[in-house]
Amino acid sequence: MSAPQSPVVASWELALRLKRRREQLGVEVRTITETLGFTRNYWSAVENERKILSQESLARIIELFEFDDEEKEELLALRTAAKERGWWTRYSALFDNEIQRLYGLEQGARGIRDYENLLIPGLLQTADYTRAIMMPDVTMRPVEVDQRVEVRLRRQARLLDENDAFTFTAVISEASLRQQIGGPRVLRDQLRHLATLIERYPSKLDIRVIPFTATACGLFGGATVVLIDFDNPQLPTLAWQETVTSWGIIDDPTQVRNLTTTFEDAYRLALGKDATLEKVDNCIRELS
């Protein structure tokens, strides 16, 4: 089963295929602007996903770029999908464009690989644990906290759908199991939830803990690092990196490759599935 259609992924694929084709044919931007009456800035916005061409303009570009009939249908279908609105747009007042883009990419992904050095990953969090993370922010109103919690739980829908082939792999530090976010009760409930997910969805979830005894890891101190994988072979893996003061999508192939290699090294250093579940259970018993 393929991933759900996402307007963000559709827009990205459309822009990517147009840019690749232009470069493959060696078509100069000036030729496009003269043929279609665009400004150079407008075409730049098209290739960078800030603008979606009208159906008429896209049809003319398809002709100019010599796409065959099958590709034409695919590109027109991508344009239609890109014009839709994802569920996350209802919360646009809460999140900047980059975070909304992450949610859209996540919605259309085949799988996510996540590294966390201190927190349980967002896709595995309980409502109380999420709320405890957000409450210390004195600039955030309670109603906004509730909405952000709602969004985080909504993002978990694909993970909990047994008919969805979406997979989630997480490498987390042992500190994530012991940092008492929200206090012992909240953490205990969170760890029980984590253990339940691991046992209930063995084919969808692969959670690995890097124990305190690990002597080195390239991701130590890396805060949050996410790799986003897609079914479509035309779409490369993307990365998301987040710290306290900055976050964003990384699409540079070299940077993504380096992050992927580092993540794979961390995965090999981590405990296996059974040992990870045993570690989680031990932490639960300690908190009880």
From TrEMBL:
SUPFAM superfamilies: lambda repressor-like DNA-binding domains
Gene3D superfamilies: lambda repressor-like DNA-binding domains
Name of the protein described by the UniProt record: XRE family transcriptional regulator
GO MF entries: DNA binding
Domain HTH cro/C1-type stretches: 17-72
CDD domains: HTH_XRE
InterPro entries in the record: Cro/C1-type_HTH (IPR001387), DUF5753 (IPR043917), Lambda_DNA-bd_dom_sf (IPR010982)
Source species of the chain: Amycolatopsis balhimycina DSM 5908
SMART domains: HTH_XRE
